[in-house]
Recover the amino acids of this structure.
């Protein structure tokens, strides 16, 4: 089989002369799987079409936001109607009140909500708020969690446990990287020992309660409970970065599922229904330290944009009114359909709600240092074979894939068959 991608290739060649690497965000470049990135032209439900007219069942879902699939009629209608009234005012609008109300209905821990325009911005602002609230500087993050591209979050672990971080990107001053401490995931001893040494300096501990940016690294609930109890003891804040898991793992996200109450939560992706929305939210006492009420400054010309708010509201309403159940049901169906195929290979399908990851090892890892990098080579073959069979997954072995409410039984069946053929190729039993 071979895929015709001439138009995508032409556009990519042109894009490379205009945009660094031909893309607006690096993971889109197909660097880790090879080949030309697909230029998408249209999406409807679970399907997307590229510029060459090839059709795929989409499991990338714009990297998470599209819990309802593409061009959901309610979302499209909300965008059209709102846009026709003007796209931005720079004043408060009804739309942000309505979305905030809905956010709070689904996630009562969001006592106050501040809207921004991306997940990165949400996390950056939440960390500034935590530092302003506690009047401390040190941030603790975990190796294998992604929190957007703020300087002090583009940090990798130094040598040894519980060291302060080293810059993981050019352009990040070491002095700034040094304000972040990196710990291994799911390791209570490392966490306890850091808190006993430096707990009084810690402004906040930030974690993806369901780390879903370097594979899908399941954390033991007791570990997450420990983060809560130790931060509380130390007078530090706990931030749950739910940019991926928020409004996807049920209405209350991971915090709701685990019954853990972080001080602050960050949202992005699903909350905007496919438009650029982020938010940080949490305890009223903390949130009231944000300007104009408090001394922590944070602002945005297009924050709370009415068109984006309307899209988010439409999406969250559909999810609330049966959408969350549909997500769970569709994901469960896919896993069941894969039951006969997967056990033939040394892989593990990790699933939390509608977030899935095919790990090329057994058992699946729970921390980034346990992820076997050799899986990436097999994933290249797997990814290509799926594309050729009309199934679109994110172009990296360490990215999760998303089931939406729009996937039909028939599409899920096609996908399960394609997975079988692609795994056979990835593991070299070339019976295709
Ligand atoms: C995607 C993501 C971010 C960054 O969000 P952007 O909208 O890409 O800036 C932050 N945290 C987590 C957990 C994410 O998954």
């Amino acid at each position: 089989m071979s895929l015709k991608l001439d138009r995508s290739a032409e556009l990519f060649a042109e894009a490379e002369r205009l945009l660094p690497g031909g893309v607006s965000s690096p993971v889109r470049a197909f660097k880790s799987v090879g080949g030309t990135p697909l230029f998408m032209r249209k999406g409807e439900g679970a399907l997307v079409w590229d510029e060459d007219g090839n059709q795929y069942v989409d499991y990338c879902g714009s990297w998470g936001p599209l819990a309802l699939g593409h061009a959901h009629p309610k979302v499209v209608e909300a965008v059209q109607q709102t846009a026709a009234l003007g796209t931005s005012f720079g004043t408060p609008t009804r739309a942000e009140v309505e979305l905030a109300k809905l956010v709070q209905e689904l996630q009562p821990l969001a006592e106050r909500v501040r809207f921004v325009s991306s997940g990165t911005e949400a996390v950056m602002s939440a960390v500034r708020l935590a530092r302003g609230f506690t009047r401390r500087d040190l941030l603790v993050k975990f190796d294998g969690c992604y929190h957007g591209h703020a300087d002090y979050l583009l940090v990798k672990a130094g040598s040894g446990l519980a060291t302060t971080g080293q810059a993981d990107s050019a352009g990040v001053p070491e002095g700034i990287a040094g304000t972040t401490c990196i710990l291994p995931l799911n390791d209570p001893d490392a966490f306890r020992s850091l808190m006993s040494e430096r707990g009084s300096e810690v402004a906040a501990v930030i974690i993806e309660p369901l780390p879903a940016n370097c594979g899908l690294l399941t954390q033991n609930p007791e570990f997450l409970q420990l983060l809560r109890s130790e931060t509380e003891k130390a007078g530090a804040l706990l931030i749950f970065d739910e940019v991926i898991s928020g409004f996807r793992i049920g209405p209350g996200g991971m915090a709701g599922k685990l019954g853990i109450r972080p001080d602050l939560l960050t949202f992005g992706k699903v909350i905007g229904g496919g438009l650029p929305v982020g938010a940080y939210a949490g305890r009223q006492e903390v949130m009231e330290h944000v300007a104009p009420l408090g001394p922590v400054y944070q602002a945005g010309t297009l924050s709370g944009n009415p068109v984006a708010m309307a899209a988010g509201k439409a999406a969250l309403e559909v999810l609330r009114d049966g959408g969350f159940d549909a997500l769970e049901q569709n994901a469960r169906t896919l896993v069941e359909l894969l039951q006969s195929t997967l056990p033939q290979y040394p892989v593990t399908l990790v699933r939390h709600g509608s977030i899935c990851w095919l790990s090329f090892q057994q058992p699946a890892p729970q921390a980034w240092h346990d992820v076997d990098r050799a899986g990436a080579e097999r994933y290249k073959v797997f990814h290509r074979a799926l594309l050729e069979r009309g199934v679109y997954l994110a172009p990296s072995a360490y990215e999760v894939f998303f089931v939406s409410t729009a996937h039909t039984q028939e599409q899920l069946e096609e996908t399960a068959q394609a997975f079988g053929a692609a795994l056979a190729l990835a593991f070299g039993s070339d019976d295709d």
